[in-house]
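anyone seen this seq b4? input:
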Amino acid sequence: MRLILAAAPLAALLLAGCGDDADEPKTADEVIAASKGLTKPRPGQYVSSAEVIDFTVPGLPPEQAERMKAMMGGMAGQETSYCLTPAEADKGFEDAVRKMGEGSNGMTCEFRKFDAAGSSLDAELACTGPQGMNATMKMDGTMGAESSQMHMDMTQKAPGIPGGEMHIEMRMKSRRVGECT
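predicted toks r here
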């Protein structure tokens, strides 16, 4: 659950089933209903980490691009720990999905795709924002009772980005390590 929650602010910083028709946005109610098809996580102490697979800003000078990649790489591999309470676990992924669909930092987001069943999730989010910003985020992975693995692919386009586009691809993992401390 926190895996998705951790991804939402990252997507917002970098920006940002109901069926297979990617042309038709899903309503909040459809997405929340589909999220209830995911396996609920167990309460307890979890650790999560992220691995940056690709980070590119084609219009940046090479030295700036390397500094940004190094910053992103520095965030990757660091484990964070959190306690998932029984009340949070009982809600499943409803709050996380709702927050992702709401967007942040002036972004307005909608789910183009949200297929969820058992431990599998396949979703696509499209966002628009101030000053001509557009972003897409694709996620697929597994969300089990005690662990999660998510692959995320995000592209942001805006006139203010050197070269007009930024891309990040990452893998996020979360696992239960025991009772909350």
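The chain has one domain: 2-178. Residues 55 and 168 are 4 Å apart (CA to CA). kinda curious what u guys think
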